[in-house]
Amino acid sequence: MSLVQKQETDIEVKASANKMFDIWKDKPYQIPDAVPDKLQSCELQEGEWGKVGSVLSWTHIKDGKARVAIERVEAIDEENKSITLRKIGGEFMEHFKSFNVTMQFIPKGEGSVVKWISDYEKLHDGIPDPNPQIAAESIVHIIKNVDALLLKPKTQHA
């Protein structure tokens, strides 16, 4: 198996592309409220929310333990409503030379489609490939719960 891999997942949601783009770009600190079983927090380590070059620290749950993933915002495309994040620290870097996630929020009817693209390069062949089904299930779980959060009345998620 190649050291360089790519996985794509498309998820249909009821929230508009603008709302989904906005929370992931400008308010990722609200995302753990939607998925407390997967994410404990998102904190800004450097820069400003919604700006390229900013560094985010995510505390997530894996195998019942809190783990940290540190990401830099690599690109924001306002016109195409996409964001690219690069993992730069935490447990991911124990297994990967690089790991990037691009999310694009595409209008569809009254809702939207979230296109989630993960591309990564393992450090060596001895590292097992991530299970694409488990990864896709986790991504869908997070996106669907963020969708539900965005559909709640504003008084419940300011």
TrEMBL record:
InterPro entries: Bet_v_I/MLP (IPR000916), MLP-like_ligand-binding (IPR051761), START-like_dom_sf (IPR023393). Residues 2-153 form the Bet v I/Major latex protein domain. This is MLP-like protein 31. It comes from Ziziphus jujuba. Pfam families: Bet_v_1 (PF00407). Gene3D superfamilies: 3.30.530.20. SMART domains: Bet_v_1 (SM01037).
